Model the fold of this input.
Amino acid sequence: MTLEHPAYGAIREVSPFASVVLAENPGYMTLDGTNTWILRAPDSPGCVIVDPGPDDEAHLRRVASAGPVDLILITHRHIDHTEGIDSLARLVQAPVRGLRPEDCRDASPLEAGERLDVSGLTLEVLSAPGHTADSMMFTADVSGERALLTGDTILGRGTTVLDAYDGDLGAYLETLDQILDLGSGIVGLPGHGPETSDVAAVALEYKAHREERLEQIRAALRVLGNDVTAREVVEHVYSDVGQHLWPAAEASVRVQLAYLRQRA
Done:
């Protein structure tokens, strides 16, 4: 039987070189839960893990069962992706690499443009700031078949909330352009939600959505004044969104207001 998303308690094969373990940490920010990706060429004994996920023993043991693990990669600092770093590293005895030194174990931080030849794969490290300042993406290329591991830059459904602490809309729009430059037909392997068949098409939709929201905020500023708070904008612009989502919307609006005010 072929498993489909969401599939808890199982390793779900997505392609000949990518499988996913869905953590049981659903929520309005994590959707169905955090995706932990397992990558390996079809003839490779070892694998690469992308984002350990939460420090949940059952989840991490399921991930470890796909071993041996050659390398663990981190897309960004958010705890639902990184909490399990130490437990998984101990289980599988593998090095961990992310952009931030504090996320690394027995290995150096990642560098943009770096090429990783591991587990029969060729991975390229792409800087992808916007959702967070430390966000990274990874292209995977096996025998001409390409995929992009997007972390939270592109999700399997819905749109991404930019972090209130270090999210940057200008940088995020540039990251979306970087995805578009990769071309069409590349499978998207996101940090949350199901895989997407054409990640560039999703990036184009995201850009249109961001532009639409920015125009709505510009209109709100014309009505409410330039000194309006993010909460007041949310109440004006996001009236069609459930109030349980307003805290996330408010964080996103703060980032959008900063973007507009920087360019005023």
Observations:
- Residues 210-262 form one domain.
- The mean pLDDT is 95.
- The CA atoms of residues 154 and 190 lie 6 Å apart.
